[in-house]
Write a structure and sequence with these properties.
By secondary structure, the chain is of the alpha+beta class. It has 4 domains: 72 residues, Arc Repressor Mutant, subunit A; 43 residues; 80 residues, no CATH class; 89 residues, 2-Layer Sandwich (Alpha-Beta Plaits), CATH 3.30.70.
Length: 333
């Protein structure tokens, strides 16, 4: 190997050591640096080390030096802090749409965001989540195809499935040809993480509405050559407002619903609706508010989950739907 190649490898290895193992709180001394280089089979005297650091700095590889009888060097740590990385790791491990195998791979990659603190991060990451993970290993590919289609303003096609009694995929079939899997073609708009799942919001040409699908239930997702269909519904669609109105990502009739609740549910109401609702105190010490929601079975179940602590006051047709819902639940017992 020529002297020039040796110098290149020495510079590369020196930068790798400082970038991966040092920061402002953990500088590496001259002799320790030489020893680390030696373990890679690279001999380097003090004078050469000084000149190599100067050369790297001249080319923009910023290396700081604490001068003393034995200089100490470090690269300023611009990576994520330990708490930040731990939060991301927890989110990955708690997300049900990511499979077990992909979770392990992603957690390991996220750990590297902590730079020189990676060992500390992985050591602290001992929480075991009981999240039921998705079984769809192709979700990364699906997300990639969807993202590319949204950027390119192209339609996507896919098959969609549920699970049968043995947890095998049960594909939705074409109504006109029950032997053939139904092929969905939609105009992708956005992806949303909600209630531990990942959803695609899209405009459906056939029905002329905005619908959503779980990404982990989509199979053979492909970006098509067809451009998306311009529509007033898609252009005027407010994703943030729509998501706020949904309960469990199940759609329904959009309606301003009047509710009354005990004061102890203020935190619950705040978590669900945020500051989009105005709370008023009633004469009997309860709170009243109006929320724009999509009246779905999930919304009605949410209301009933609080027993006599929350009551739907209006409009009357929503109250009637709540009564019917309760009657249908009582009928099965």
């Amino acid at each position: 190997m020529t002297n020039e190649n040796i110098k290149r490898i020495r510079l590369l290895r020196l930068w790798e050591i400082l970038n991966q193992e040092s920061d402002e709180d953990h500088p590496i001394g001259t002799e320790e640096l030489r020893a680390k280089l030696a373990t890679s089979g690279i001999q380097c005297d003090r004078k050469t080390l000084y000149s190599d650091v100067a050369l790297l700095n001249n080319f923009g590889y910023e290396i700081f030096c604490l001068r003393s009888t034995s200089n100490q060097y470090y690269v300023e740590d611009r990576s994520f802090s330990v708490p930040e990385v731990l939060i991301i790791m927890d989110a990955v491990q708690a997300a049900s749409f990511i499979t077990e195998r992909k979770t392990e791979e992603l957690v390991d990659k996220v750990g590297k965001l902590a730079g020189s603190q990676r060992g500390e991060v992985l050591k602290q990451n001992v929480v075991q989540f009981s999240t039921v993970k998705s079984m769809n290993e192709s979700i990364y590919y699906s997300v990639s195809e969807i993202s590319n289609a949204i950027v390119s303003k192209k339609k996507i096609g896919f098959n969609y499935f549920d699970y049968d009694l043995r947890f095998n995929r049960a594909y939705r079939m074409d109504k006109d040809n029950p032997e053939v899997r139904k092929y969905y073609v939609v105009n992708p708009m956005a992806t949303v993480f909600s209630n531990d799942n990942y959803y695609l919001f899209c405009y459906d040409d056939k029905h002329g509405t905005v619908v959503q699908y779980r990404v982990d239930r989509m199979d053979k997702v492909r970006m098509l050559d067809d451009d998306i269909t311009p529509s007033k519904e898609a252009e005027s669609f407010d994703l943030a407002e729509h998501k706020r109105q949904l309960f469990g990502m199940y759609g329904g009739e959009e309606c301003a619903v009047e509710l009354e609740a005990e004061r102890e549910l203020i935190d619950v109401i705040c978590d669900k609706f945020g500051k989009t609702v105005s709370l008023q105190e009633t004469t009997d010490g309860k709170i009243a508010f109006t929320a724009n929601v999509q009246v779905s079975p999930t919304f009605m179940a949410w209301c009933c989950s609080f027993g006599n602590l929350l009551k739907v006051k209006g409009p009357s047709h929503v109250v009637d739907r709540i009564k019917d819902y309760l009657d249908s639940v009582r009928a099965i017992y």
